[in-house]
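Record IrrE N-terminal-like domain-containing protein, 116 aa.
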Amino acid sequence: MVPRECTGICQRLSLIDVQPLVEVKDRVNEADLVRTLVHEYAHALLHFDVDDDTERAKREVEAEAVAYIVGRFCGLDTSGSAFYLATWESDDPDVIRERLGRISRTATEIIALLED
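=>
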């Protein structure tokens, strides 16, 4: 977390350990802050090499679904995720179903990091 204005986009890697650097705006609500950090970290893990907007809605659904799962695991209020997911949902109900494997693997990876 950095106190300055940030866009919430992972655009760089740490030069020390080649891990994604995620910067987000500070939030008053800590649950929202954590959910946003996890959302952006999920983007870094899932979409770091993607630079086009053709499937942006699907990428947002993936990242927010990961944030929802990790947030629930941590006991956080994830009610904001439902609204966010609804804003990115397409007319195709299979968007999440076809990406469940990626979502599940990424959430599991982040939870494993948290447990270490």
